[in-house]
């Protein structure tokens, strides 16, 4: 159709505006079958869901390009236009093509059209379904010629039964779905049992069915078939509403239960606090920290820092991040064993017995350790010394450290520095960092609960360095007897005395240990075991341990010395006994 023909059609439409009903007192009521409707009308596409006769609802559209359509409708006497459904994906592309609009739509009367924020809003009153016969204008404002399909006669009893079923379904839906307010109920009261067609359309408009299913109802003119489809949609809607109600009740029950428990707990806390039976979390934290510090003997600087941090904790809100940081700091500060020492045992005979009990052979190493302990006996302490046990893997360096701690009656703490590249592992992180923690030595004192444990630094020859710092350099301050009296951990940020700690280091070789660090250590070499010593270790230590691991008794397994010697001489010729243990395990 060309533009000239379209303009002629517009003029004909303006001349045809009198062909409608609306001049009598019933013009603003629901559309009745005998009403005369315009044969030509403007149409407006909607994408969310179709519009139905007997439906009254606000409609919002963009000013561009639909303002002109509503303007022309407003200039007519009847204020009637058509609303046609269009699939959402077609509408998202912009102005839909005329072919994308559904052929069957709903004629509506426009009320109270107004512009606001680039939108046009109006109240649409559904009147009657129509079918597009001819397109008179295929671009906005769309203009069409329509016909109004007549409903065929239906059997009265069957029609009445369907009508009553729809009325019952609508009432049930109003009961189960709280979204429908009093306005909907009042509007529904305008229908009577004889208004079968409006009731069916109104029932369909109340459902949340997809647009294509609702359009199928709008397309269906025969009343009984349409009512059957509407009843099916309303049953689905009722089932959805029932499930929503059950979910809502379940959620409300849980929320009410949690709220009730919360209020009861809060009331209990208030009652207990009034009776002096309980304290809030902050008060409990403060009292716990004060009790811990009262059991210790910290230096004056530590006590002053403790008082400052405790005062800060008392004025902070529990929910603030700073409260958590301060609380963690005080937790660490009060768990360091300030002034708590274990008593040393200087019984050289007992020390020799413990070394012989735990190790076969290594007589020269045992003699060197006894000499070291004898020096401590003369001085009254073994502090200020650093032992370095050097030897191949598997010769018992770590177990000797355990034996030394047992001989002295001290707590033992071991950690590996092999591969360590971050200086903060030694001296701690500063409190400004998220997740900051003290260094390994503070953790060792906390776990051992004494200020003079035996701390073993394993694999010190494999310590590394990176852009984050040099842990070996940080160890200089820690291990040097002249400096570790005032060791400063970055996290605690108070001076602490490590001079009472006995440090034992282990290494496989001396070449990779920094010279300044090596100069501060007493080196004890463990060369390895001869065959006879390996045999004794296998009989006294390895086999009992392997039998226990396997769940066997000694009498259930008989291994001769000759068999063990053959394994040692043929397959386990290394300096240590780790390979021997693996072979015996097989």
UniProtKB/TrEMBL annotation:
Q: Which reaction does it catalyse?
A: Hydrolysis of proteins in presence of ATP
Enumerate the Gene Ontology biological process terms: protein quality control for misfolded or incompletely synthesized proteins
The cross-references to InterPro entries, in alphabetical order and at most eight, read:
AAA+_ATPase, ATPase_AAA_core, Lon_bac/euk-typ, Lon_lid, Lon_Prtase, Lon_prtase_N, Lon_prtase_N_sf, P-loop_NTPase
- Domain Lon N-terminal as annotated: residue spans: 41-238
Could you state a single Gene Ontology molecular function term?
ATP binding
Q: What is its EC number?
A: 3.4.21.53
Keywords attached to this Swiss-Prot or TrEMBL record, sorted alphabetically, are: ATP-binding, Hydrolase, Nucleotide-binding, Protease, Serine protease
A Pfam match is AAA
Q: What is this protein called?
A: endopeptidase La
């Amino acid at each position: 159709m060309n533009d000239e023909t379209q303009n002629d059609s517009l003029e004909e439409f303006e001349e045809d505006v009198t062909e409608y009903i609306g001049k009598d007192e019933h013009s603003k009521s629901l559309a009745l079958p005998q009403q005369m409707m315009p044969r030509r009308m403007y149409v407006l596409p909607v994408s969310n869901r179709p519009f139905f006769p007997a439906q009254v609802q606000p409609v919002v559209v963009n000013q561009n390009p639909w303002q002109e359509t509503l303007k022309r409708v407003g200039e007519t006497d009847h204020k009637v236009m058509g609303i046609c459904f269009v699939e959402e994906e077609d509408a998202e592309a912009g102005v839909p093509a005329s072919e994308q609009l559904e052929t069957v739509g709903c004629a509506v009367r426009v009320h109270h059209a107004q512009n606001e924020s680039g939108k046009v809003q109006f109240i649409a009153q559904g009147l009657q379904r129509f079918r597009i016969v001819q397109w008179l204008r295929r671009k906005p404002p769309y203009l069409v010629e329509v016909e109004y399909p007549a409903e065929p006669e239906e059997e009265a009893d069957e029609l009445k039964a369907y009508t009553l079923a729809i009325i019952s379904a609508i009432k049930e839906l109003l009961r189960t779905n709280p979204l429908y307010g009093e306005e909907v109920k009042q509007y529904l009261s305008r229908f009577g049992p004889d208004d079968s067609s409006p009731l069916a359309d109104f029932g369909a408009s109340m459902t949340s069915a997809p647009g294509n299913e609702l359009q199928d109802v709008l397309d269906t003119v025969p009343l009984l078939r349409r009512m059957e489809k509407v009843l099916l949609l309303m049953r689905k809607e009722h089932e959805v509403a029932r499930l929503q109600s059950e979910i809502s009740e379940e959620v409300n029950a849980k929320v009410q239960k949690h709220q009730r428990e919360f209020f009861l707990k809060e009331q209990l806390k208030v009652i207990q606090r009034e009776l002096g039976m309980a304290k809030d979390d902050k008060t409990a934290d403060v009292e716990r920290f004060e009790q811990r510090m009262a059991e210790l003997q910290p230096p004056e600087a530590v006590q002053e820092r403790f008082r400052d941090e405790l005062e800060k904790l008392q004025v902070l809100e529990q929910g603030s991040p700073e409260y958590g940081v301060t609380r963690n700091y005080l937790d660490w500060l009060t768990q360091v064993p300030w002034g708590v020492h274990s008593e040393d045992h200087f019984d050289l005979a007992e020390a020799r017995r413990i070394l012989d009990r735990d190790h076969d052979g290594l007589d020269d190493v045992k003699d060197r350790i006894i000499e070291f302990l004898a020096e401590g006996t003369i001085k009254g302490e073994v502090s200020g010394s650093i032992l370095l046990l050097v030897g191949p893997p598997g010769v018992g360096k770590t177990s000797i450290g355990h034996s030394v701690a047992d001989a002295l009656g001290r707590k033992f703490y071991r950690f590996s520095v092999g591969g360590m590249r971050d200086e903060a592992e030694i001296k701690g992180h500063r409190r400004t960092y998220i997740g900051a923690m003290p260094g390994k030595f503070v953790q060792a004192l906390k776990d051992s609960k004494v200020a003079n444990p035996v701390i073993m630094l394993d694999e010190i020859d494999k310590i590394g360095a990176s852009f984050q710092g040099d842990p070996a350099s940080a160890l200089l301050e820690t291990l040097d007897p002249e400096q570790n009296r005032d060791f400063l951990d970055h996290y605690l940020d108070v001076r602490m005395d490590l001079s009472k700690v006995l440090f034992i280091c282990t290494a496989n070789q001396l070449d990779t240990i920094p010279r300044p660090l090596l100069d501060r250590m007493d080196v004890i070499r463990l060369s390895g075991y001869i065959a006879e010593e390996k045999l004794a270790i296998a009989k006294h230590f390895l086999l009992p341990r392997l039998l226990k691991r396997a769940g066997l008794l000694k009498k259930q397994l008989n291994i001769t010395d000759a068999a063990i010697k053959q394994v040692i001489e043929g397959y386990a010729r290394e300096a240590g006994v780790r390979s021997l243990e693996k072979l015996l395990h097989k």
